Amino acid sequence: MSKLGKIETGEPLADRRIDILDAAARAFMRQGFAATSLDRVSDEIGSTKGAIYYYYRSKSELFFAVHRRGMELTQAAIRPSFETPASARDRLHGMAVAHTILVIDHLPYLRVIAQGLEMHLLERTNESERAELADVAALREANENLYIRVIKDGVASGEFRSVDAKLAAKPLLGALNWTSRWYQPRPGETQAAKKRVAESIADFVVAGLEKKN
Amino acid sequence: MSKLGKIETGEPLADRRIDILDAAARAFMRQGFAATSLDRVSDEIGSTKGAIYYYYRSKSELFFAVHRRGMELTQAAIRPSFETPASARDRLHGMAVAHTILVIDHLPYLRVIAQGLEMHLLERTNESERAELADVAALREANENLYIRVIKDGVASGEFRSVDAKLAAKPLLGALNWTSRWYQPRPGETQAAKKRVAESIADFVVAGLEKKN
DNA sequence: ATGTTGCAGCCTACCGAGTAGTATGTTTGG
DNA sequence: CCAAACATACTACTCGGTAGGCTGCAACAT
Fold this sequence. Notes:
The structure is a homodimer. With about 210 residues, chain A is mainly α. The first copy, chain A, has two domains: about 10-55, Homeodomain-like (Arc Repressor Mutant, subunit A), CATH 1.10.10.60; about 60-210, Tetracycline Repressor, domain 2 (Orthogonal Bundle), CATH 1.10.357.10. The first copy, chain A, contains ten helices and no strands. The first copy, chain A, has helices spanning about 15-35, 40-45, 50-55, 60-85, 90-105, 105-115, 125-155, 165-175, 180, 190-210. Chain A starts with 13 loop residues before the first helix and ends with a helix. Mean pLDDT of chain A is about 90; it is low at about 1-10. Chains A and B meet through α1, α8, α9 and α10 of A and α1, α8, α9 and α10 of B. The structure holds a DNA duplex (30 and 30 nucleotides).
């Protein structure tokens, strides 16, 4: 009864892999990639390094996996609002709210990806690591592109000021991603309280682009 | 002629200390605190670890010094606009432009402080380190407070929407600090080009707070 | 029902590389 | 010639990665 969980899942081992991934995300969030030892990650789940190396081939692969999951969570969170048939203003507002609530609810993953990854492997990277890096970078770009496109839509419709969408997306993403840096989870925080924070930030970024009247 | 520079300075050794500090900022920017060895920092100035330990007592102290300088540069950059007798809107705009140009011109320091420091020393800190941490945190808070105060001024004067100034300062700072993450220095970039980026970001954060008409 | 066997899923012990900090030697300008 | 300003050599320690061993469940044979 102890070590299964792959009974009904199509992908065996998936649960254990995610347990490890969650532990890694928490550890990387607190101490960063370089300062986190795999011994501490495995401690987090009451296990040893051997367990990690059974599921992941290296520390870098584990790090990339955290990034990948964070990016996929983000894409899943913001895409619905992006695809909603509505004004650019409302779509962007919905994306920003969803994005911020995601940050609050999955802080470890989102804080890790907000820290970036290029920093950690300017050198000493082998072939497969560089491929994974490019892969994760593509996911990040895909998320950014959703924002760029909605900005362009708003400019085209006249809702937003005439800005360079690629450039304007930068402070927008900064405002959103920064939440992962200052937000501190509170034990009994209600969903309504989270929503209020998210709305406030969404209002800010939408207003930053809208025309004055 | 090689190792002086304290001839006219009130503070002896100041030049060499700053050389080391600059090298440390560049190294920390590229690889982060934990992944940067002091051997690499000293390589950066064609020296060895002994030189660093002559001027700084530990790696942590050097890291704190980088943060402190970054905070002081920021304070020096934004305070003039803050104190200008003008509308809250114009003061904030001036602060944001100055802030962004500072980021561009002193990228190593600003990127390091945008990465944060609490992360790196949750444990294993001695007494003096905790004192320095509190000190740097106070500087950070002082910078944030300038933005909070100008937001409050704008709300009071009716220029800005009725926002919670402390909360609204978060995405604002995120939008500004994020520049240190995406900006890549280009060799022949003109001052006018930098200014254009800074104006764009300043427009964004000011519009994020202003009333619609 | 009961032994037997195979292998997934770990754990343990270890190695080698890298690094913060220190102790001591060395140079050079005044 | 002496101290400031380093350089060099060394120690103690951490940590990524690996090799090999252990264990308990499961599936089959009897």
